[in-house]
TrEMBL record:
<dbReference type="InterPro" id="IPR015168">
    <property type="entry name" value="SsuA/THI5"/>
</dbReference>
<dbReference type="Pfam" id="PF09084">
    <property type="entry name" value="NMT1"/>
</dbReference>
<feature type="signal peptide">
    <location>
        <begin position="1"/>
        <end position="27"/>
    </location>
</feature>
<dbReference type="GO" id="GO:0042597">
    <property type="term" value="C:periplasmic space"/>
</dbReference>
<comment type="similarity">
    <text>Belongs to the bacterial solute-binding protein SsuA/TauA family.</text>
</comment>
<feature type="domain" description="SsuA/THI5-like">
    <location>
        <begin position="45"/>
        <end position="250"/>
    </location>
</feature>
<keyword id="KW-0732">Signal</keyword>
<protein>
    <recommendedName>
        <fullName>SsuA/THI5-like domain-containing protein</fullName>
    </recommendedName>
</protein>
Amino acid sequence: MKKACQFILAVILLNIVVTIAPNQIHAEEKFKIRWAQGLSGNAMVTIAKEQGYFDEYGLEIQEIPLEGPSDTFSALNNGQCDIVSNEGTNAPLQNISAGNDLMIFGGHMVAGAMPIIAPAGTKWNGVEDLLGKKVAGSPTGYYISGPLLDKGYDPANEITWLEFDDDKDKVMAVATGEADYGVIGTNQNYAISLSNEVEVMAYLDDVLPNYSCCRMVTRRDFFNDNKEEFKNLHKALLKATKYFYENKDEVVQMTMDKLGANREYVEAYIKSEHYIIHPDPLKKPVLRAWDWLGQLGILDARSKDVNIEDHLDNEVYLQALTELIDEVPEDQKAWYQEQMAYFEENNQD
């Protein structure tokens, strides 16, 4: 009887091990990515974590709080994080022009609810209003400088640029009269809404639609060595993007919990019509930005030796999207097919 009980116990334990082992193996096989987390967060990442999309594709994302191009690109270039997604398009391009071996492989914000502000009561006629004025911002902001270049102006010299490290300081410069206008980051929308001294004149996507606000960037060798994992990352982020547009109230709560921020702060940008997120690489807008930055003399002198197309990848994203169209249920295919049309518009000649 004792031996029989021992045998039964052994069988039970074996079944438990067999049941648990695959899950343990799956957990051990998760591909780890260290992601630089900006002050406004990344809604796609938050959703993909909360909804289990990263788990579905065997990915483990560790978010590291980092803000500002100096700190984030130092961490990326030195291997202390793997992906930067909140530092615009101009900063990645400047880093690449300086010889850093990076890869732009996708997107975060297409438009980041980035306002152009002025003292309350100012009348706005268009981007030409900035000419001859003091602007809290930088000529590297091609979303302002580029359209002015195309109109025949010299924005680097026809605007007095006042550069600040912190967007809060830009807002204060406009509020106190130090600057006539300010080009402000996503994270200041709520503060601006509370101010009696400043007013939103326009948003950057009013000046330049589809301007490629923030790109996803990694080290080129890391990308090339892990293309299957990056394809899975794109699948998770595409699913998160679909969820974002269908469930904004839930996304606000997720982001509040993630950032420890109040509802008004998060809603000020998440619910803005000027806040457009998408993982599409947007190759054509990025190439346009590279050209404008070159005309402005902002790229490093070494840029003449850089073939920027070697640092842009949209093939892995396209593969992920193509596979998803085949994999998702029939009632979801239409949304993903719309993203294919969006890809063709923004990536193919």
